[in-house]
Design goal:
By secondary structure, the chain is an alpha/beta fold. It folds into two domains: about 180 residues, Aspartate Aminotransferase, domain 1 (Alpha-Beta Complex), CATH 3.90.1150; about 250 residues, Type I PLP-dependent aspartate aminotransferase-like (Major domain) (Aspartate Aminotransferase, domain 2), CATH 3.40.640. It is about 40% helix and about 15% strand. Strand 2 and strand 3 form a beta hairpin. Helix 3 packs antiparallel against helix 11, helix 7 runs parallel beside helix 8 and helix 14 crosses helix 15. Bound molecules: pyridoxal-5'-phosphate. Pyridoxal-5'-phosphate binds next to helix 5.
């Protein structure tokens, strides 16, 4: 088995950083001159790009982006799923252009006729009968947690160690000593310690789920059906059924967040695997890049919401935002779901992700590198450990900043963009097998240099 020589990795990384600086002077200058932005970027997470500064965007179409230094990239980051439909897909552009141009209106406080179409399509895909629209998946999750606490009359949220559901306070949990609920490192300004609001569980560990739920004070268990934000951690046989059963047994609502796992198919894992959530959250991709999100609820949850006559769902009850459900986002969702992220598009994207995974697997086998790769429909991601991790905690332990930066820079210096957060690659309708093969060749060459 090949072990990574850290000295060799350090010198390869230096070479890639130097090449990055040489190739992207305009991006570097733009970053260094940004005196009026916290961290030099419009949103601080943009500092996550490898190489010390982000590449500045010039254009983005389909699965290609260009930077201001004039380089073109095959984009496997795709806005960390927000651009899973490809950049600026024509039907979405036409619909939003019509909406804001000829028809007029971006935010008017009035619904448009697109909204019911969108609700019906979300029901067709994901099964939940009733929907509310938000501007982000984070918002959808936050509001769904409030509703869950209200209808159950319980205070606690159960979440998996190293999960991510947006900037949702209750979900920044990891497993601490003796299975205690501990805050995830670096959490900024929590209102109260997370152990007061939340209880941690480990993915693929039904005993930990039962420990969390058995005190019968948990309003809602929030989960991705496969973890996608700490690498991809796939559920083992029987795990998701077990979670559903335990939620039923202890009176806890099950919230399934498919913001990323929609990569599994047109109806996400929920449709593909026959899941039965009480609350469902989606966002990012369904708007074709226009900000949006949505949560769906069962008839039972809806009846319990309606039964609470005190709840102020119309004004300042804590669920809502002025821009949520705006007609621009709604038009974008209608066009994207109706014409871009179709069943046929998913077939194409999933077959390319399979090709991508097989390409990575063949290099790992050839050099006997102890890494693994997991695929979830149209996305795949390698992790620096083998066998593939079973829990968020195991996956977090496999993180390696230097290896990640080396591979990211090796790719971007040769025209391929990976998601700045870990090693995710996502396919969109415009991705081709030649794009995937380019990654396969580059990955082989990057690993070969490391392994020799
Ligand atoms: C599973 C999941 N839910 C919610 C979110 C939050 O989405 P947004 O940043 O659009 O609010 C993310 C973001 O990565 C996510 O991965």
């Amino acid at each position: 088995m090949t072990t990574i020589d850290r000295g060799r990795l350090a010198s390869l990384l230096d070479e890639e950083r130097a090449l990055h600086h040489q190739r992207t002077p305009k991006s570097r200058a733009a970053f260094e001159q940004a005196d009026h932005l916290l961290g030099g970027v419009p949103m601080t997470w943009m500092n996550k790009w490898s190489g010390g500064y982000p590449l500045y965007l010039a254009t983005a179409h389909g699965n290609r982006v260009t930077d201001i230094d004039g380089h073109e990239y095959v984009d496997f980051a795709l806005g960390d799923t927000a651009a899973m439909a490809g950049h600026s897909p024509a039907p979405t552009i036409d619909a939003v252009t019509e909406r804001i141009g000829a028809q007029g209106g971006i935010t008017t406080m009035m619904p448009s006729l697109d909204a019911e179409w969108v609700g019906a399509e979300l029901t067709r895909r994901f099964g939940m009968p009733l929907w509310s629209l938000s501007l982000t998946a984070t918002d959808a999750n936050r509001w769904a947690l409030r509703l869950a606490r209200m209808v159950t009359g319980r205070p606690i949220v159960a979440a998996f160690s190293y999960c991510y559901h947006g900037s949702v306070d209750e979900t920044f949990v990891i497993t601490g000593p003796n299975d205690t609920t501990a805050p995830r490192g670096g959490n900024v300004g929590p209102a109260v310690p997370v152990s007061q609001t939340s209880r941690v569980m480990e993915f693929n560990d039904l005993d930990s789920v039962e420990r969390a739920l058995s005190p019968r004070d948990v309003a809602v268990l929030i989960m991705e059906p496969a973890l996608t934000n700490i690498g991809i951690v796939l559920p083992e046989a029987g795990f998701l059924e077990g979670v559903r059963r335990l939620c039923d047994e202890y009176g806890t609502l099950l919230l399934i967040d498919e913001t990323h796992t929609i990569s599994e198919g047109p109806g996400g894992c929920t449709s593909a695997w026959g899941l039965r959530p009480d609350i469902f959250v989606i966002g990012k991709s369904i708007g074709g890049g226009i900000p949006c999100g949505a949560y769906g609820i069962s008839h039972d949850v809806a009846a319990r919401i309606r039964a609470n006559e005190e709840a102020d769902l119309v004004d300042v009850g804590g669920v809502g935002g002025t821009l949520a459900g705006n007609v621009l986002s709604t038009a974008a969702i209608r066009a994207t779901l109706g014409e871009v992220l179709t069943d046929k598009a998913f077939e194409h994207m999933i077959s390319l992700a399979t090709r991508y995974r097989e390409g990575v697997e063949s290099t790992l086998a050839e050099f006997d590198v102890p890494w693994s790769i997991a695929q979830l429909g149209a996305r795949a991601e390698y992790r620096f450990t083998r066998p593939a991790p079973r829990t968020g905690t195991e996956s977090a332990a496999a993180h390696d900043d230097d290896l990640e930066e080396y591979l990211h820079l090796f790719m971007s210096n040769r025209g391929v963009l990976m998601t700045p957060f870990h090693n995710m690659a996502l396919m969109c309708p415009a991705t081709t097998s030649a794009d995937v093969d380019l990654h396969t060749v580059l990955f082989h060459s990057a690993v070969e240099r490391l392994a020799v």
